[in-house]
């Protein structure tokens, strides 16, 4: 969990006077652990402290600044006294963090510099890490540990029975537990407020049911809505766990409780990732589940403690275990036939109809993953509290929804089973036991390889300046569209000298590239004669589209590729962006009677750039008490400021603007005609492949109707509203809206202050949502659902504000509900 300002307090101040010293504590082996935290001893007349600082360039910068303040009092490992000697007043202390290196005698290696520059340390450290990693087999050996992995969809239930039959099924206790739950709490409150009592209930149930033959320590717990993942290890092994990180991924546009959570950690020298996923439920087809899997794989990444290091993607782990309710069903839909196969214990024949098995064999999903042999009956769907199948009319076909898959060279499965004795849910839990070979460092061999590598590096560094050749230096991205990724590639070929490269910021800029561009990798290390392929990605999203539409920005940038101890290379990136209604302001869209891509670029830029978001309004506390005349005058001034600021010839439109943007009308009209009765509208994500066709239809007007599902159109509508540079409820009215959310009368007064086009859009959307509520019996929608979906996109806090807390989100939702329920009842 990140440390925020409010988490830190000032307890004492140590003056950097003559008695102050900062000494690095070296491990007893005398060899540093690469990538580990650095331990320092602070010595002063009033204190003797042992502190731990994170590995990376920021720590080196901090130490360099301390040295500037107090000179020779700052001591790195090179500045320690000769072995057998100590600094005056120094003594051994106790580490403040578990697993930190133990303090030992300080030593000196004979250099006059108190601190080597952070740049030199980073370069040398990167080279050393790279070469030691290549030689890992020379100083490590495999040691096998037993991992228990379990998955349980609890269907929103509290634990009502012991989990011992599941978690302590085997006579021998495992070394590591990884336990995942799905559908922990399907309530809307859990999704909106990100809090649920079920988390604590199931956490206690798990910890009470861990194998009694060993003592366990909890390493990490992560939850997203109803998906929870817990990692526990034997207490005596906890010190060997490091670099623990978490990541969460939700379904597109944040709808529903589907998605995944993951825990990344290093066990000795092996990186392991556990992923707990709850994929979308589409019984008749598996395309949505396949898409969810690939989306999770692409988006899961773990940020390192050192912000200068790139995030770790899912693919860069030695071992991956994927568990959860994957919602793949049986292709055989005849329930009676399925029952006969189950009664006959012909699991092998039934397994031939399994969607996941067939999709994996077709190489469409879980490439390179393995699943153990399934010799147990389907884990879904049962009557809660029994072992009987659910034969109600609403029952879906039985299926192995709950699965555990794995990937890695050193992992093998020992068992794979379901646990019929647990009857709390309509699912049965599953578990698998794995033997995972973990790389353990042999200290003596490591010392030998380390010293040989350092000696080799010393010779290499005395050679010459590195140089590279680039396969391409100019890149043009043609016809870039909103939310459509384009990629170009080039190759960096290194010469005979080890080379560290990085794209660096240009003068007076805070990033090496513009926000619509990214280079992967943006930094790296190349061994002699090695090469790396760099991917340049251009992707225009809601945060960058407005500036491109208005002409404030263009698809033009210069990248500076810097070689450490070498020269800089300049790469030219350019392209053309096709304007889109996504990212255009409401005010401008109402003046466009033709598709945006049929308009002259100058006309589009004039319309979009003339919009002035965030114009000041009256203070919120005077909003209600202001006289009607003054209020009307103020609204007139406000609306005028949102109109184009030109006069004379520049004011080139004479026609009355549209009441609402035609693009908004097209999407809402399509949903009104085709999807009012569709089940779970705005709750199930659309297909990503259908969005480009919907966007092109809106931007070009080439089709009279949309191609694709109604769920995709609904998702496009939400994205359209979310990408507005000024939300429907203007930023200046956000605080007033939140404060007056409990009163329909006061909320209506806030709406009355909106510019005419924003007011029209708001009322039009409310009428549409009330129309959906007229069909709630079929579409299963209610005011709470619609308000929780549309509240965050219609009512957004001004830029620069922190993320709204749960109470503020509830008020935003309540504001929308006023117009869905109270206004609807008055008509």
UniProtKB/TrEMBL annotation:
<dbReference type="GO" id="GO:0007165">
    <property type="term" value="P:signal transduction"/>
</dbReference>
<dbReference type="GO" id="GO:0005829">
    <property type="term" value="C:cytosol"/>
</dbReference>
<dbReference type="InterPro" id="IPR036691">
    <property type="entry name" value="Endo/exonu/phosph_ase_sf"/>
</dbReference>
<comment type="similarity">
    <text>Belongs to the inositol 1,4,5-trisphosphate 5-phosphatase type II family.</text>
</comment>
<feature type="region of interest" description="Disordered">
    <location>
        <begin position="80"/>
        <end position="113"/>
    </location>
</feature>
<dbReference type="Pfam" id="PF22669">
    <property type="entry name" value="Exo_endo_phos2"/>
</dbReference>
<dbReference type="InterPro" id="IPR048869">
    <property type="entry name" value="OCRL-1_2_ASH"/>
</dbReference>
<dbReference type="InterPro" id="IPR047078">
    <property type="entry name" value="RhoGAP_OCRL1"/>
</dbReference>
<dbReference type="Pfam" id="PF00620">
    <property type="entry name" value="RhoGAP"/>
</dbReference>
<dbReference type="InterPro" id="IPR046985">
    <property type="entry name" value="IP5"/>
</dbReference>
<dbReference type="InterPro" id="IPR013783">
    <property type="entry name" value="Ig-like_fold"/>
</dbReference>
<keyword id="KW-0378">Hydrolase</keyword>
<protein>
    <recommendedName>
        <fullName>phosphoinositide 5-phosphatase</fullName>
        <ecNumber>3.1.3.36</ecNumber>
    </recommendedName>
</protein>
<dbReference type="GO" id="GO:0031901">
    <property type="term" value="C:early endosome membrane"/>
</dbReference>
<dbReference type="GO" id="GO:0004439">
    <property type="term" value="F:phosphatidylinositol-4,5-bisphosphate 5-phosphatase activity"/>
</dbReference>
<dbReference type="InterPro" id="IPR037793">
    <property type="entry name" value="OCRL1/INPP5B_INPP5c"/>
</dbReference>
<dbReference type="InterPro" id="IPR000300">
    <property type="entry name" value="IPPc"/>
</dbReference>
<dbReference type="GO" id="GO:0046856">
    <property type="term" value="P:phosphatidylinositol dephosphorylation"/>
</dbReference>
<dbReference type="InterPro" id="IPR000198">
    <property type="entry name" value="RhoGAP_dom"/>
</dbReference>
<keyword id="KW-0443">Lipid metabolism</keyword>
<dbReference type="Pfam" id="PF21310">
    <property type="entry name" value="OCRL-like_ASH"/>
</dbReference>
<dbReference type="InterPro" id="IPR031896">
    <property type="entry name" value="INPP5B_PH_dom"/>
</dbReference>
<dbReference type="InterPro" id="IPR008936">
    <property type="entry name" value="Rho_GTPase_activation_prot"/>
</dbReference>
<keyword id="KW-0472">Membrane</keyword>
<keyword id="KW-0967">Endosome</keyword>
<dbReference type="GO" id="GO:0030670">
    <property type="term" value="C:phagocytic vesicle membrane"/>
</dbReference>
<dbReference type="Pfam" id="PF16776">
    <property type="entry name" value="INPP5B_PH"/>
</dbReference>
<dbReference type="GO" id="GO:0052658">
    <property type="term" value="F:inositol-1,4,5-trisphosphate 5-phosphatase activity"/>
</dbReference>
<keyword id="KW-0968">Cytoplasmic vesicle</keyword>
<feature type="domain" description="Rho-GAP">
    <location>
        <begin position="643"/>
        <end position="827"/>
    </location>
</feature>
């Amino acid at each position: 969990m990140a440390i925020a300002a409010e988490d830190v307090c000032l307890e004492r101040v140590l003056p950097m006077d003559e008695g102050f010293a900062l000494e690095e504590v070296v491990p007893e082996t005398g060899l540093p652990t690469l990538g580990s935290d650095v331990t320092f001893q602070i010595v002063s007349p009033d204190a003797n402290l042992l502190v731990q600082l994170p590995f990376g360039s920021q720590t080196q910068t901090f130490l360099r600044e301390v040295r500037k303040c107090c000179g020779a009092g700052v001591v790195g490992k090179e500045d320690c006294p000769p072995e057998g000697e100590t600094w005056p007043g120094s003594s051994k202390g106790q580490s403040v963090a578990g697993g930190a290196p133990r303090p030992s005698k300080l030593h000196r290696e004979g250099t006059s510099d108190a601190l080597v520059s952070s740049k030199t340390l980073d370069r040398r450290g990167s080279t050393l890490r790279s070469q030691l990693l290549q030689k890992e087999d020379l100083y490590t050996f495999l040691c096998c540990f037993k991992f228990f992995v379990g998955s349980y969809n609890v269907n929103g239930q509290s634990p009502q029975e012991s989990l011992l039959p599941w978690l302590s099924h085997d006579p021998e206790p495992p070394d590591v537990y990884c336990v995942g739950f799905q559908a922990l709490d399907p309530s809307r409150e859990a999704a909106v407020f990100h809090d649920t009592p079920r988390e604590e209930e199931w956490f206690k149930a798990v910890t009470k049911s861990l194998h009694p033959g060993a003592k366990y320590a909890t390493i990490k717990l992560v939850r997203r809505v109803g998906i929870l993942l817990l990692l526990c290890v034997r207490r005596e092994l906890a010190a060997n766990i490091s670099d623990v990180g978490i990541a969460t991924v939700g379904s597109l546009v944040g709808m529903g409780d589907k998605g995944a959570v993951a825990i990344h950690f290093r066990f000795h020298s092996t990186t392991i990732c556990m992923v707990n996923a709850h994929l979308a439920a589409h019984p008749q087809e598996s395309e949505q589940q396949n898409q969810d899997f690939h989306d999770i794989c692409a988006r899961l990444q773990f940020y390192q403690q050192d912000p200068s290091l790139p995030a770790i993607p899912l693919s860069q782990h030695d071992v991956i275990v994927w568990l959860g309710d994957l919602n793949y069903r049986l292709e055989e839909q005849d329930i009676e036939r399925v029952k006969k196969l189950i009664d006959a214990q012909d699991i092998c024949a039934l397994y031939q109809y399994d969607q996941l098995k067939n999709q994996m064999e077709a190489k469409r999903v879980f490439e390179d993953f393995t699943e153990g042999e399934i010799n147990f009956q389907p884990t879904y769907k049962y009557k809660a509290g029994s072992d009987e199948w659910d034969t109600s009319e609403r029952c879906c076909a039985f299926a192995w929804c709950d699965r555990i898959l794995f990937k890695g060279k050193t992992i093998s499965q020992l068992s794979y089973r379901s646990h019929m004795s647990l009857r709390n849910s309509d699912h049965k839990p599953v578990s698998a036991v794995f033997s995972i070979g973990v790389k353990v460092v042999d200290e003596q061999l490591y010392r030998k390889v380390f010293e040989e590598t350092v000696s080799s590096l010393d010779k290499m560094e005395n050679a010459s300046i590195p140089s590279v050749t680039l396969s391409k230096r100019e890149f043009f991205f043609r016809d870039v569209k909103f939310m459509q990724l384009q990629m170009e590639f080039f190759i960096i070929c290194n010469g005979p000298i080890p080379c560290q490269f990085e794209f660096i910021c240009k003068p007076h800029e805070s990033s090496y590239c513009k926000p619509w561009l990214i280079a992967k990798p943006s930094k790296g290390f190349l061994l002699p004669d090695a090469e790396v392929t760099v991917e340049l990605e251009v992707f225009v999203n809601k945060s960058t589209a407005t500036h491109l539409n208005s002409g404030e920005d263009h698809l033009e940038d210069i990248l500076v590729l810097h070689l450490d101890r070498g020269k800089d290379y300049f790469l030219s990136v350019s392209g053309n962006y096709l304007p889109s209604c996504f990212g255009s302001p409401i005010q401008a869209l109402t003046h466009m009677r033709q598709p945006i891509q049929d308009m002259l670029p100058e006309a589009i830029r004039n319309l979009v750039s003339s919009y002035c978001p965030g114009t000041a309004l009256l203070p919120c506390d005077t909003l209600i008490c202001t006289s009607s005349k003054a209020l009307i005058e103020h609204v007139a001034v406000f609306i005028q400021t949102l109109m184009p600021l030109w006069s004379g010839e520049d004011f080139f439109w004479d026609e009355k603007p549209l009441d609402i943007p035609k693009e908004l009308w097209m999407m809402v009209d399509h949903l009104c005609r085709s999807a009012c009765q569709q089940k779970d509208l705005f709750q199930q994500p659309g297909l990503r492949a259908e969005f480009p066709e919907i966007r092109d239809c809106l931007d070009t007007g080439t089709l009279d109707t949309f191609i694709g599902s109604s769920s995709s159109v609904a998702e496009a509508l939400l994205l359209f509203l979310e990408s507005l540079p000024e939300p429907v409820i203007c930023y200046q009215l956000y605080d007033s809206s939140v404060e007056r959310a409990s009163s329909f009368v006061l909320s209506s007064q806030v709406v009355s202050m909106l510019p005419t086009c924003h007011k029209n859009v708001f009322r039009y959307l409310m009428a549409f949502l009330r129309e959906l509520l007229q069909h709630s019996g079929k579409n299963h929608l209610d005011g709470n659902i619609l308000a929780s979906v549309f509240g965050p996109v219609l009512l957004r806090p001004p830029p620069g504000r922190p993320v709204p807390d749960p109470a503020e989100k509830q008020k935003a939702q309540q504001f929308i509900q006023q117009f869905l329920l109270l206004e609807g009842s008055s008509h």
